[in-house]
């Protein structure tokens, strides 16, 4: 689909702040959505160095930018420069979407909803399910938040530094008094014997698999057909290839990217995002 953007004095500006950011797929599918709904707006990538983040956030107000997405490495640091944040940002401690209302900046995290919307295409009801989450970085916090909200029974969280898992448990205590019964920290060497036989879903939130030479996080041959396997990297990683070979349902990171972007679009515009149009632009 050819994008028709009529630039004028009434054209609104949206964008994404990151460093680096030129590889971002967001400009294509967000601009497609604006064009499809005849919203006079453009979406641009802004490469913002960490030391320039405060000035960049101030420029949202000065230049009248209507909204921005925030990507690495700014999702945590940006919070201190906002006027208000949503509930999920308070728990996840990361913001990926900002809405500008006449110079008043409100921060949101749409990664949580983006992940869960994609996952529910494979398994609509998550209540009572057991999940293995690999990694304890910023992405894992959004994913765990969404899983708890959906009522999963157990989250086995594996990380090389278990202190990060205990920090997540501490931060999420206000979310539910049962948090210490839901999130169970485990080391990677316990996955095959003590976790895989009991979980329904496996989620990789680390960067392992981005490069073909990366060492596996565990023995992928131990994956069973019953497992649903998600990797938030935007390609078919060795983990996903192993899942496919076992006949598992699997999903890469593109649905999460699509649905987090759609939620951001709806926050900014108040209009229902044209998912099919955005998906087509993203896959193209």
Automatic annotation (TrEMBL):
| Positions contributing to shikimate binding | 24-26, 71, 96, 111, 234, 260
Cite a single GO BP annotation. amino acid biosynthetic process
The protein's superkingdom reads Bacteria
Query: Which parts of the sequence belong to the SDH C-terminal domain?
Result: 253-283
Instruction: List its EC numbers.
Output: 1.1.1.25
What the entry lists under Pfam families is as follows:
SDH_C (PF18317), Shikimate_DH (PF01488), Shikimate_dh_N (PF08501)
Reactions the enzyme catalyzes: shikimate + NADP(+) = 3-dehydroshikimate + NADPH + H(+)
Picking any one GO molecular function of the record gives:
NADP binding
Q: In the UniProt entry, which residues are flagged as the active site? A: 75
Coiled coil start-end:
none
Sequence ranges assigned to domain Quinate/shikimate 5-dehydrogenase/glutamyl-tRNA reductase in this UniProt record: 120-175
Concerning InterPro entries, the annotation shows: Aminoacid_DH-like_N_sf, NAD(P)-bd_dom_sf, SDH_C, Shikimate_DH, Shikimate_DH-bd_N, Shikimate_DH_fam, Shikm_DH/Glu-tRNA_Rdtase
Does Nucleotide-binding count among this protein's keywords?
A: no
What is known about its subunit structure?
A: Homodimer.
Q: Main role?
A: Involved in the biosynthesis of the chorismate, which leads to the biosynthesis of aromatic amino acids. Catalyzes the reversible NADPH linked reduction of 3-dehydroshikimate (DHSA) to yield shikimate (SA).
Q: What is this protein called?
A: Shikimate dehydrogenase (NADP(+))
